[in-house]
Amino acid sequence: MPLKGQKIGLLGGGAMGEAIITGLLRAGLVAPPAISVSDINTKRLEYLSQKLGVRTAADNGAVVKDAGIVVIAVKPHAVTSLLQEIAPAVRPEQIFISIAAGIPTKLIESYLDGPVPVVRVMPNMPCLVGEGASAVSAGEFAGKESIQKAMAIFAAAGKAVEAPETLLDCVTGLSGSGPAYMYMVLEGLIDGAVRLGLPRGEATVLITQTMLGAAKMLLETGEHPGKLKDMVTTPGGTTAAGLFVLEEGALKALLIKAVDAAARRSSELSG
Ligand SMILES: NC(=O)c1ccc[n+]([C@@H]2O[C@H](COP(=O)([O-])OP(=O)(O)OC[C@H]3O[C@@H](n4cnc5c(N)ncnc54)[C@H](OP(=O)(O)O)[C@@H]3O)[C@@H](O)[C@H]2O)c1
After folding, report:
1. 54-82 burial, b for 16+ CB within 10 Å, e for fewer?
2. Which among 137, 192, 186, 126 has a CA at the least distance from the CA of 161?
3. Percent of residues, the chain, with pLDDT higher than 90
4. Hey, which residues does 8 pair with through a beta bridge?
5. Rounded to the nearest 10 degrees, what angle do helices 15-26 and 144-155 cross at?
6. For ligand 1, which residues put their CB under 6 angstroms from it?
7. 123 CA to middle of ligand 1, Å?
8. At the N or C end, where does the chain have fewer CB atoms within 10 A?
9. To test ligand 1's pocket by mutation, which of 11, 16, 153 has the most ligand atoms within 8 angstroms of CB?
10. Topology of 176-270 in CATH?
11. What are the residue boundaries of the structural domains of the chain, listed by start?
12. 4-33, pLDDT tens digit by residue?
């Protein structure tokens, strides 16, 4: 129980902040009174306090003073002014976890006086439904315990893996942008079925469940995706006919290029 007895503070109670809190509470890792949230939007604070029973404060510094683990969950453009504001309240035994896209741990460390553990996390949108995919990276002063705590927080909202910070642009291009790739694939397959006469609603149920099922089989069997693909491809059969069309269109090469383009863009934006 890496989070037992911990007080967790969230700076920013927007979409991601709410998803993180929901994951923690649903997994029973901490109780609502152990969580405090600050946000400049007082309506969000009222909402979070009523819906999730967490403590709220308008003052970021008050949340930092109260917490052992502090999650920075504001938009990237708000991070530097936030760090200036909270710096006087920071203690070296705290752990800072930032989910702000493109903000390096070095920048955060530079605002916090002394060797404070900073962990950077790249989550993705399905955290909002408890099926997120997050990569967790240690900053210079973050040890094993800080990583374990961050992994526990994000595993409660889906799955979490550890990755060096140098690979976070790649993670952004893979799982950060990944939901959009999946939606495009789903939309195309649904359109294909609608074209042949299947109603959109039924086509959506069938193919979204197919994507979930295929993903679950890959995770649970640990097999190479090529092997699972071969298992459903009868020689001379229907799947082989469909796969040939995808090969002709160079689908795999396109996907490789998409991850590359998104990772490059992530690197340019974090500059
Ligand atoms: N959403 C995703 O799918 C996703 C995926 C990966 C990473 N992230 C990262 O997660 C972070 C949060 O994203 P989000 O989607 O949760 O954004 P969001 O819904 O806009 O939430 C941010 C919240 O912080 C508040 N805020 C702004 N400045 C503040 C300050 N100085 N002090 C306290 N609160 C402040 C905002 O209030 P106002 O609305 O009034 O400004 C808002 O309620 C971002 O850095 C983003 O890069 C998000």
Report:
1. bbbbeebbbbbbbbbbbbbbbeeeebeeb
2. 137
3. 97
4. 35, 69
5. 90
6. 11-17, 38-41, 44, 60, 73-76, 78, 82, 99-101, 123-125, 176
7. 13
8. C
9. 16
10. ProC C-terminal domain-like fold (1.10.3730)
11. 8-168, 176-270
12. 899 999 999 999 999 999 999 999 999 999
CATH class of the domain defined by 8-168: alpha beta
Residue 271 scores a pLDDT above 80: no
Q: Retrieve residue 195's tokens.
A: 């074209």
Distance CA 101, CA 75 (A): 8
Across the chain, mean pLDDT equals 97
Measured from the Cα of 100, ligand 1's closest atom is 45
Pick from 177, 174, 253, 185: nearest CA to 214: 185
- Closest atom of ligand 1 to CA, residue 79: 31
Q: What is the rounded CA–CA span in Å between residue 223 and residue 246? A: 22
Q: What is the mean predicted confidence (pLDDT) over 118-138?
A: 97
| pLDDT over 90 at 45, yes or no | yes
Tokens at 48, concatenated? 């979070």
- Cite the beta strand spans of the chain per DSSP E: 8-11, 35-38, 55-57, 69-72, 95-98, 118-122, 132-138, 158-162
Amino acid at 148: Q
Sheet holding 55-57, edge to edge: 55-57, 35-38, 8-11, 69-72, 95-98, 118-122, 132-138, 158-162
